[in-house]
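Consider the following assembly input.
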Amino acid sequence: MSFIRSFFTACECSILEESEHSLTIQLTEEADRALMNRPFYWHYKDRLGQAGDPMAITFFTKDPGRPLKHQEEYITFGSPRFHQLLSYAQKKASFVQLYETQKTAGMIQLDPWLFVHFHLSYEANGKKEKLVPLALHLINGAFSDRFLEMTGSLTLSHSISPYHYVLSPLITPASGLTRLKQKLWRDLLEEEHVWAQTARKKQKAELELLQSFFEQDEDNAEHFEREKAAIMRRFEPVIRVSVLNGGLFYLAREK
Amino acid sequence: MKPAIMYDDTWANALDQNLKTASTPGGWALFNLTAQMKQQILPSRFDGLLAPGFLPHIQFLPHQLKTAQTVMEEMNGTAILADEVGLGKTIEAGLILKEYMLRGLASRILILAPASLVSQWAKELREKFQIFALVQRKNPDWTWNGVQIASIDSAKQAKFADVFSDTLFDMVIIDEAHRLKNPATKNHQFVSRLNKTYCLLLTATPVQNNADELFHLVSLLRPGLFGSNGFFQSQFKDGKRSVQNRDAFHALLRQVMVRNTRTEVEHEPIKRFIQTIRIDPSKEEKVFYDSLSEYLPASITLLTLQREACSSKYAALATLQKQEGFDQTKIAELARAIDRNSKAEKALEIIKGLDEKVLIFTQYRATQQYLELFFHSQQIPAVSFQGKFKKSKKDWMIELFKGPARVLIATEAGSEGLNLQFCRHVINFDLPWNPMKLEQRIGRVHRYGQTQNVYIYHLAYKQSVEDRMLSLLYEKIALFQTAIGKLDSILDENWIEDHLHDTFHTSKSVREWEIKMQNLAAALE
């Protein structure tokens, strides 16, 4: 529920009505185009040069116990709609640029930081994922892994406020990202990857079974290769790294 | 050895461009929201199931959750799901599929089911698991990048062989997989050639005691689990079908197969109470029934006609009226003299005595129509259901039955695959000649999801052909009291069904049929 509210508030949609288990939202045109999947309607309006009429929609977070009407939806954690909203949020805010605003009088100097959420996926005969937040000071090159706690209490704005000025980064964002990546690599290599060793062991055992099945049977080389490839895919340990989102932050130096 | 690390530089590549564009007001909120939500939905551990948390509207049974977990954690997504009928194999498969999709381990999925179950699969996946699958029909597009459902017969056609050899499926699920037990068949070869990472085989037929069949099924999933064919033959085979070294064999089997049985799963299994109600026909009905032999049309056996008359006069008339000049015959007059249906009155009595939903089965469309009118005249809201209805109408009828209607009158044809667990009373207005059909009827309510005992009422006229069918077929074979597990093996024996069909349709008299049935019963015992 709080996710839906924060999501639509952040997307500048207004909340028309709210009860314990439902939320009625007036979509903006942008949100309607992106989320409601009615390209023909918008195409038609665009052609006519008319302004469209964005939908209002009601989300139920608990099954209302009656058949749903038009423009009503039951949304659950992890449902396709939920994922759609999430991936929209991710795309829309995959990169941010923010400036701290302080209330104190006088000129305020802001330092540049590069901050990213790394998304790590450990894959073998199973999968686990985690997010690793990591920040780099783009002047002195210092890392911070508690950047979010640092920014939690601050007022951040998408444009720079009066009497605030920024220091130009000495490290470009691109090379900053490379440094963050290298730092992550070092940390990963230090981890004990028991899961990967277990997976390799299992993979080896499976391959031995497979060999025993095809012993001296050369007619079935193709079949053997196919099964072998399947075992390799099923157990081969790998860590995939991507960036979920990140941004350039200008923050006042801590006193 | 350390695992390989692979880096996706999409974000890095877009960085330059992003730096030039101004950010939007809601950005920071969405930025945090994304990270928080992602944190909540990502699989933070290798083990444990995520899927149930995402599907709060479904109450999974403990054995289903345990099965899904075992398949994921111990069998690495390659398993035979061999639960007994009615324990929810499809649910288990759906749960495993959902889990692999949520974890991002599977996205291109192929589900192969018998043609008649394809739509049902799509519906279950959509309604229960919020998985939206493409149903492949006449012109299949096998390059589809998501979940697709097809019948094995349409997929195995030679013209698609190239597409399949170039396509990699993350997961392949095969329903009714006992059809793959023979490696000489096209089905088996087709599945064996599929490129797949994970694979689930679903079968209700207990195959665990036929060594060869199991060997071939297992070889589809994990070739080599039982060693090579030669090794298997010498180690585990005993005679033609049996297994030796049972313990070792079953230990291996447990690595790849899950089989839950009713007795293990249900602490208090749902009981089935069967009541046979023998009814005295009214005088008019009796006269009508007895005179049928005199007016027998050439193409119909007396047996057929009598059974129709046992259902309702309308069912018999539907056949009789096809003859020219029927209206002038005496039998037509006798039919007109019947002003009530004793069975319908009994059914009404049962329904009135219950404050619950009742499912009525008949084999005849004419009876179905009559009953619907009859119940309406008695102010009992009733709806019909039959195979000819369009899908939307079928769905609507079921919705009505769930809602305002008290009674659903169904013909067999449409009832396959229906799930009516919310109802627990079944009236068999007339009886099919094949007891397995009866089992399917009862299966509509006595199935996974039923929480209360089930009550079955057989209606039969005294001293009619049905009466004999009852004593012979149903009581003698004692089919209902037989454990479902045992029934499995009977259901699988196609020859019984063929035999029943022949017996019924070729017999000229009830007596002849009775003798044939007794022979069958003897053979079964």
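The two ends of chain B are 62 Å apart (CA to CA). Ask yourself how this observation constrains the way the partners meet.
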